[in-house]
Structures are given as structure tokens and as C-alpha cells.
């Protein structure tokens, strides 16, 4: 989505970090027409791809190399349970889209509802993951048990940390909106956090497919 | 807060009339410290600066200090190896010092020095007033210095890292003590610095070019830095993963590199070199860019084959990802993989070779001024050629099994990183020093510096080729007599002192330059935009954002070509709207209007209102009113949090780590809630109220990209 | 550079400017360098050198050409005082030339790649009827297991000359790299993996090498040597290794030493057949058949053993063998015992 940055005028502050001056009159249009923040988050997400790529590759390399007699992935995965939590996370992408659409339409009440829903869905996913981990630990798989344990917990834990950060950012947006500090001109903030949120979602779909579904 | 380039700061809370400039907003009631103003001086001014030029200088100065430390480490290593069975250093001391020498020179010298040049020059070269995210830029620098000091604090806290800069697991998994932990967490911190710098500079170049500065008009240094920043963007996460796994192995006894649990130690090498080889190009590409700027200026000819230079740089950037396993030719990869990586390694020499021939062609038929920057640039071309050719001999896998992990490879990468990167960066220092300071470095002392460096460098590292081929392995703290290595080791040690002497000469040159007479805007008759503004440049860089009409815009403003293609001075400079006149001290004001709108081919629009120009006789700058981002101490504050987290992690004082996390988060939130620049005073003098009420400030964003 | 000078020796037809300029280097190289990769003593290292030499020549020629062009350009076109030349012509590029110097290096590299890949595959073939030896890397010494012959020894690899040897490389701790430059290129020794390398010595002799992957504190002290015997000498060596340890006379110094060997914990780490089964340190059953010890850094003699036993980590940093706090008398007795291990 684009905000109003195309019809704004006048440069002079070439530097537009952070605050949303660029959405106000007085911001220089950029060379690409995209705001700096948007280019930055795409660059950042590109970098994140390699981070998760490295962790997922490590898992795939190691899942079959655990010492014999130790727990294997499919001894322990509860696929119906994880499918439900994956569905929850997937739905949160939908509510994120609705939140963005709400702020673009200027409907701040709906924005807050959808932000909170997204955060709740994300929170449920994290809670579900914590529960899953405790079940696994009870069944005898911890960080040190074998290579599967080490690489599984690190990869999914790292993803869970990303979701948690996303939830914190969503809650911050919500509280900004409650205080009236998230006017429609700042819809791009919601969009940027939405991009991050969708990215984290997509990563989970990849993990769910490669780790849980493929034997 | 309006940063106004104004010498006399107004009292913090003085209500300002709408016609005058506002200096600083009143102290924020919720802040511990008053937000510094744009003209904060002294140490505090440096700590809180968000000016890309000051940050560039900070990077440069810090990197030079680390260069001295890394150089002293190198001398210690060379003294130890100067004679067989030497006991000058213990095995443990030697291993710490060679690890820190490598880590320092790569992560704390060449990378930040390149980052310093990029920070300082990229906005100037593309005609911007600052980088895209000035506070993120400051954060990147402070994280870098926190990472460097964190790693060096290990010397006083039980011993420095001693597993080599490559940190091969499982050795680094098993080593006792906290030495390796400092290395792991130090590199993680430095990774954050590089990543934030990469995002920032990429956005700056992509998004903040002046009108008319299309991609194929960008100075070649901008291009090479852009490629290097993209490499960083994608390479850093790979080593982050590797270090992350290793730190879990060390702290929580996971099994990632535990062969007894079925792990494959080669995973470390694949991850490390998947980062490590692009890293080589991260180190060399900016220097290539610098050389490509220097040669045309002193040959008075344009860069030969600019598009080919750009595309070969991009090609190197891409191909750099397909050659990592050539660091692993002895690991038993199997003939198919060996052949593939051998071929890819050979062919990455092609774009590099093209660059060398284009540099020679740039010199060819030029009118070459033999200044110090040119000498260093020519030194780069020749020394780097040697490194490149010995690189080709490494690509021949069977030969490499005789060469890898010997002094031959030490010679190879020193020819690339010292003969290449450091020569290029020294050339850049001599070349841009007058822009930074307004004063030239002495050319006479500079030439002495150059020749001592060249002689010392070759005396040190050329014998390494021979030593390596005679079978001397690297990373050994001692060697016996009777191996035939005594003579060349002694020569190399003497050479290293010659290099040390050359560095002293360089420092002397810096010292005496404070007395050298000021030079003007453009002492070299140069080609790129940074030379069109005063030396040193004002905080806002360009009073008017330049309108770019050609590659080598500034040269184009000064010269045209006659019918024979020779450069001729323009009788009349180009029209004022396409040119920035440093002499013209026009009073300018930012206007939220669209008096002038100039659209360039990239779609950018610039608006300039110069209706104050009639006051051009006013030589003072106090009326120049350009809205710049305000300084902030939050970036430096936040960066400290990382060190606290890492100390907590290393010693497993989890509470400290959590406190560090809170510190970091608090810093980032405060940073986020602080406007990048204080609001302009409203037309009516209600700014007291506005500034005193935090709710009224434009709130910050959450900016996930920069914060991660 | 050594590369160039060696080339000059072998290819007398190639007399480049560079080799002449590097005659000085030759004089420096004249000293005996037992780990020199340019003096192959076996077919594998010779194959490698024959592949390398043309590459070094090509590199040398390219270097001289490029360097010459650079110097020529700088000298010829430098600005002189009162230079009468007008401003230079503004040449922006030349597509034909640039395509040329993209293609020509690519062709040269292609011509290097072909023999390289061929040699990679040639060297990867396992030799037939090779002597099989398992090399185990330890911090900081080498263990050799002749599984077919039932022999375990340390530090010195004994092989018959003229017979191919295939090494299976394993590590018990960290990554090492096995390298005897006169015989073959190096191959890494990686825990959890098995690597292979093979070579052959032309003639009997002692060939020096060492570990080339940084493996910790005493990486520099992890040396290797291969001793090639004639076939009959090798058979004698095998026979000696297979004899049982001689009995120690009762009441002698050596017997006291044996008691210390068992009492001070030596037996926990070292194997002496019929006495102990320790696996951490080198097998000492036929210690006296070796000429060096402790990662091949010390010649095996009484004085060195005495120094060593007094404080192993003091003379070899990071040595796994601890300082046992032996008295001078105990050391004498232990050495007396060790001297019976023929």
C-alpha cells in the first residue's frame, strides 16, 4: 500500500529516519518512490531469509544423524496439534491484513480490534509452542539429548522469538493507537510491521512443511 | 529539533519568534539528560552525533587505532618467528595474539575503515544530506566499538581468544576458559554493527540519490560499496547462525559440533566460509572503488569502461557466493565437488582481471600526476595482481593441497588484504584527507610513507611465498632449525619493522598536517560531487541539492570536451541550478512550498527555494537553515546494552544478561519515541508547550528493520 | 619466488625477466629444506608439481606483462614539470578491448581448469595392493594402526619404499591435517569422518611433515615423519614390532621402573603389550624402535626423556601427559624400564 508520500512536496530534510516526517509535508520524495523504511525492511527481511535458511539447513542436515536409540522426529511430533497452531498463526496474517486495511480506511476502532486479534493469535501460537516444548521435554527430548533435539529447539525457538518480538510490536502499535498516536498518515508503520509479521508466518509454513510434514 | 547550523545556541527554553531559527527544544522532562543540540561540542558532541561525516571520521579514527594494535600484534608474532626455537612468546600467548591479529585486522580495521569511507562519502557522492537513518548509523558505530572493546577486554579477563580467526569447531567447542566466548560474542556484536550499517547504506544509495543521479551515473566507489553492503547483508546472518550454534554448544552443551553425538564438524566450515568468502570481497571491493576514483582524477581521464567496472563488481559479488569450499580443498570433499569449486574459483578471476586491465587503460595516455594517492592506487593494482595470481594457483586443487595452511596462503591473503585493501584505503586517506580536514597531507612525507610501505610489505610477505612452498605451516608458534626456513623468516621479520616504520611516518604526516595551509574546495581538480562543497563540508553537506546531469558530475561542470575528445575548461560554468557554488553564501530557508520542482530520470524531485539569495553578501552561515536530524545519545546508550548482555551470557550471570536486555530495549524504545529531529517551531510561539508535553511530540516508529 | 626459481631450473627454455630478477631468491633457497614441496620424493607429489609448474609459469608471465604495463603507463604518461602536453583525450572505454581481456583470461583459465580436473580425478583413485594404515590424530601426536599387520605405533610412519600406501585418517579430538610434503598434499583429519589419502615413496629415506590444521596449544609441536625402508628392512621392522616385550629382570632398576609405570598411572594411558591397555597416549611397546617421541619433537635419548618426564607440559605446552611429580630417582628407574621396550 502506499501512503500519501507521492503527493507531498518539498525536500530539504534529506534524512528521514524513524519518525514519520516523511509522511508529512516536508519530506523529500525518494529515488525509488518507496519510503526509506520500506526499502530498509525489505533489505532486513532478505537478511533474515539467510538466518532462517542457515538454521533450517542445519536441522535438515542433522535430523537423521542422531545417535541410534535416541528420539527421532516422528516419535514425538504431534502433527494434528501443530497443524492447529500453524493454522492459528496463518489466521493472524489475515487479521494483520485486516488491520492494515482498517487504518488505510481510517477506521481506528477496527484497527485496534484487528491488531489485538493478531497479537492474541500470535501469542496463542507462542504459548502453544511453549506447551509443545514442555511435552517434548517430558517425553525425554531436551537440548542435549541428540542432534535432533539441539537443532529442533534452536530452530523453532528462534522462530518463536521472532513471533514474540512481533507480538510486542503489535501491542506497541495497539497502545499507540489507543493513545491516538497512530493517525492514518502513519499507516505505513502498520504496513511495515505487517511485512515482518507475514515474513515470520511464511517462515513457519516452510518449517512446518519441511520439519513436521515431510517424513 | 531543528538542528540549525548556528554558532550561538539559544537558551534552551527561549521562545523563538517565527522568523528566527530555533536552536534547541527545551529539556525533555522525562529524560535523564538534556537532548544534545546540533552544535554540541567536544566529547559529548562526538558521542551523540548523528552526522554521517562525523560518524565516518569516528569509524576511521577507531579503525586506525585498532590498526596500530593489530600491527603491534603482528610485530610480536614476527619477533617470535624471527628465529627458530624462539621463546619470546609462549605458545599460549602466540595463539592469542595471532587470533587477535587476524580478527582485529579483518573486523576492526579493514571493515570499519571501509565503513568509515562509505559513511563519509556515500551521501556526499550521491548528493544527499545524510544517510537514510542517521541514528541507526550512530548505533552501528557504537555497536562496532562496543564489540571491539568487548573482545579486547578478554585480555584483562582471563585471556584473549585463541582459536584462530576462523574458529574451527570442534576445537573451539572444546577449548577451556572464556577466551573463545569473547570471540563468539564479540563477533556477534560486530555482526549487528555491520548489518545495521549495511541496511542503512543500501537504503541510502537506493533511495536518497540527488535528482539525476541515476544508477549508472553513480561514482564507482558508491557502486563497489553498495555491492559490499549487499554482501554483508546476506553474509552476516550466515556467520550469525554458525556463532549462535557454537555458543549454544559452549554454554548449554548442545551437540552441533560434537562428533561423538554424530555431528559433522564440517558444518562449521561450510557456514563459516559461506560467510568468509563473501567477506573477502567485502574487504576488497571498497578499496577497488577507492582506486577507481583515484586513478581517473590523477590521470585526468575518465574511468576506462565504467559500465564494465560496475558489472564486474556485481559479478564478483554474485560469484563470491559460489567459491566458499575452496577454503576446504583438503577436507575430503570428493572429486566432483573439488572440480566444481576449482572451476568456479578460477573463473572469479575473470571479472577481477577485467578490473585490472581497465585500471591500466585508465592510466594509459593520461597525464599522470605522481601524487601519494596515485602511488598507493598503483601500488594496489600491482600488489593485488600478485595476490590474484597466487589465488589462481590455489584454485588448482592438487597444488592447493600442498599450499593451503602454509605460509604461501598467508602470503596470498596478505597481498590481497594488505597489498590490496590497505594500500587502497591508504590511498583513499591521502586522497580525501583534504576534504575531511581542509588540509593536505604532505606529499613528500606521503611518498616516503608509500615507498617504505611498499618495500616493507614486499620484504615481509614475498618471503612468505617461499616459506610456504618450502613447507612451513601457518599458525605455528615455533619451528625447529634445519627446515631451511631461518633466513626468510628473518628477512620477513626485518620487513615487518620496515612496515612499522612506515606507519610511524604516516602518523608523523598526520601530525604535521595540522599546520599545513588550508586548501580549497577542490585541491585535486577532481570529478565527483564531494569536491564541489567546502572542505570540510558543512553539516548539511549541500546547500542546494545538486541536479546531476552526467557521470562525474563535478568534472562535467568544470570541463567539456573539444572535437578531439580532449578535456577543455568550460568558459562559463554550468547554470546555477545544476551546480553548487561554494562561494555563494546564500541564505536559504526551507519552504513547505513547491517553488521549484525538478524531476530527474529517477523520479526524484527536489525543491529549492533560494529567495534569500539577495543576502549573499552575508558571509556567515548562521542564517543557513537546513533541517537536520538532531543528535541523540540513545544509540550509544543502546549499544552498551549489548556488551552487558554478552558479559552476562559468558559468565552465565543470567540476571545481568536480562538487565542488559532491558537496558537495550529501554534504549531502543527511548530512541523510537524520540523524534529524529525536533519539530519545527509552530508559526505561533507555542513551542514551549509543544516541547514540554511528550504526548505532543511526533512519536517514533517501531522500525523493526533497524532495531533487530 | 621459489616457484619461479624452481621453474627456471626445470624449464631452461623459459627465461623470463622475472626469473632473472629473482636469482637472488635462488641463493636464499639453496639451504636444505626437508619439507620443500618443490622437491617431490614420490609419484603423488611429483604429479602435483607437474600440474603446478605450468600454472606458476603462466602466473609469472601474466604478472610480468601486467606489471610491465603498469610501470610503462606510469613512467611514460607521467606529468613532467612544464609538461607541454594538452589535456588528455577523454577515453571512456573500448568495447572490443574489454571483451578481449574478458575472453583471453577466461580461455587461459579454461586451459588450466582442464588438466586440474583431470588430475583431481586421477589422484582420487585408490591404488591397488596398497599397504593400509589408519592414522589417528591426537592432540598433539599421530597414532598409526597397521590393522592388517596387527601393529600400533606412534609419531613415525614406517613404510616400504616403492609400494603404494593408503592412509585412512581419523581423529579422536579436533581437526588435524596430515601432511608429508615430499610425498603428497595434505588431507584433513576430522573427528566423526574418515578421510583417505595415498602416496608412495620412491626411495628409502626419512620424510618430514607436520600437522597443518590448527589444533590447539601445541599445534606447532605436532610433527610427523614417514620412514621409507627397503622391502626387506620393512619386513624386519614388522617382525620387530610383532615380538612381545622382553621380561624385565627382577630387582633391577627396570623392574622398579615397571612398578612405577603401573603405580604412577602411566599404564592408564599407555599400552605396553602384556602390561597395560591405556589408549590415551602413544603405544610404548616398541618405544625404542622409534627415533623420536612426543609428537616427533624430541630425539629419543636418555637426556630428552629425563627432561620430558620431569615436566611434560613444560616442554610441550598443552601436552595431555601431566607433570607426575617424579623424583630424579624415579625418572632414572622409569627410563631404565623404557629402555627395555625394544
List keywords for this structure.
heterotrimer; B: 708 residues; mainly alpha; 57% helix; globular; C: 342 residues; alpha+beta; 5-stranded mixed beta sheet; 3-stranded mixed beta sheet; 11 helices; elongated; disordered N terminus
Across the major sheet of chain B, the strand order is: 1-2
Share of β-strand residues of chain A:
under 5%
The shape of chain A, in one word, is elongated
Range of helix content of chain A: 55-70%
Largest interface: B-C, 107 and 95 residues
Helix and strand content put the structural class of chain A at mainly alpha
Low-confidence stretches of chain B: 1-31, 576-623, 681-708
Radius of gyration of chain B: 26 Å
Count of separate DSSP helical elements of chain A: 6
* Largest sheet data of chain B: 2 strands, antiparallel
Helix content of chain B: 55-70%
Strands of chain B, count = 4
Mean pLDDT of chain A: 85
How many β-strand runs of chain A?
Answer: 0
Shape of chain B: globular
Question: What is the oligomeric state here?
Answer: heterotrimer
Could you say which structural class the secondary elements and strand pairing of chain B correspond to? mainly alpha
β-strand percent of chain B reads under 5%
